[in-house]
Amino acid sequence: MNTAGEPPILEARNLVKTFPGQAGTRAVDDVSFTVGRGEALGLVGESGSGKSTTARCVAGLVRPDSGRVLIGGQDVTRARGRALRATRRRVQMVFQDPYSSLNPRMTVAELVGEGLYVHGIEPDRARRRDRTVQILETVGLGAEHLDRYPRSFSGGQRQRIAIARALAVGPDLLICDEPVASLDVSVQAQVLDLFCDLREKLGLALLFIAHDLAVVHHLCGRVAVMNSGRVVELGGREQVYTAPEHPYTRALLDAVPVPDPAAERARAGALRPVPAHHDPEETR
Amino acid sequence: MSAHPTQGSPLLDIRGLTVSYPTPQGPAQVVRGVDLAVAPGERVALVGESGSGKSVTARSVLRLDPDARTGGRILLEGEDVLEMTPREVRRVRGARAGLVFQDPLASLNPVKTVGWQITQPLRIRGVGRREARRRAVDLLGRLGVADPDRRFDDHPHQFSGGMRQRVVIAIAVIAEPRLLIADEPTTALDVRVQAQVLELMEDLARERGMAVLLITHDLGIVAGFARRVAVMRHGLIVEEADVDRLYASPSHPYTRSLLDAVPRIGDAPGRRLGAPVPATTEGEAL
Lengths: 284, 286
Prior knowledge:
Chain B: It holds the Pfam family ABC_tran. The structure holds two protein chains of two kinds. Chain A is of the alpha/beta class. Helix content of chain A is 37%, strand content 21%. Chain A has a six-stranded mixed β-sheet, with helices on both faces. A four-stranded antiparallel β-sheet of chain A has the order 2-1-4-5. The interface between A and B is large, with 63 and 59 residues.
């Protein structure tokens, strides 16, 4: 976590975001959290809970109405120009859908090498290519993939390319917005294993947004639960999963299907009488 | 082929089903000899990953893909669906087998009211407008839609994702089919809504003695829903077993790897999920 004196890699303070046309409803409503160096924080919630908007505020893709985002102690909500760019380099993003997040007209070499070029990390073409190969190898790809286009890769491989692209500039923190939600279970398993490896090898911190509570349990030591734009619970993995304090967290956990027939049958009785016209999507 | 089901025969009996699609490179075979039976009132899950052929198998039962070249037999109440004329197949859809798709937004007509859509299976079979409406409103209420009489005249965009999926289920079951085929019915839904939709499907199946063939990649939802599970890969069923047996002691290595790949709350965090295969051959077709 927070080593003495060093600021956390990421701190979100009282973030608020409202979208036009939704007067009165705050997509993100006074959200605060920190991510320590090398730490993995999971952000869970249902669709519309504000978890993706929070991630986008932190990544600088959406400007919050108020509140601050500090990266390594630097306030990026106010920074401009070169200082902003240098800080931004420390935080990279991986999106859910590797079919739309990779430019179909760029080769793998261009996709992964772009950050190295833009940030002036490796201006020399040949050396940039070497560096790109090294990065590809950390995600389980290699030199033979350099000159191919995204279309010739499967979903899991595309997500590896997206991760390589994010890793290229040597970030301290990856923000991942549902990075395995669109993958098959066996491919999801491999990408989750890759995240575990990367954290171990590179000491990478993660802000991991997911709706799948089991995936977050697998990967994140700390968990924030969002509902209606607010963080309703924030705590260590053990506490949140075994002794949740907020009824919403409990409701979410109760609904997680368990791959165990006997446990599921036992649970079915407990869940049963569904109150008529109870729609969690409409009773927020 | 007998036109009358024999006593004790399965409701759905798929035998040696093959399906291929014409491509410029020649026919691509996606289902390569599937045998699967569903008894009346039984809940069976067909599990597999993308490209395994599970959806194609399900869609073949209602002959939904005009391009598909099929072989083998699909006996529904003793009659071979693959031998039917298009007119006969239309009589099967909805009345004898209903279908629920994954994406409720894509499977609903955006310019028609949900009521119109739910009553179609009855209307085309000659049920009067008033009676059809009465039954549709009843069913919507039964499916947990609040104020069903008013919602009957709403359009799909006025419903949330979970409510839309209830509408899709209503369309599939209003004509009281004996078999419901549900193709990834909860994949697009949040976990609490998913739990409710599965329960509704299960309750409805119990009440009506309706059989359900659930197509999914999610072994979590299968455990609570199905009594029997068939695991499909590369167009073939690699293992079929009672749900308890399959989860406790899967006999096929692929089934085991699928079960191992699912992270579970309660497991040691960070345990290896994937089989130790080279990263570049992740078992997916390129």
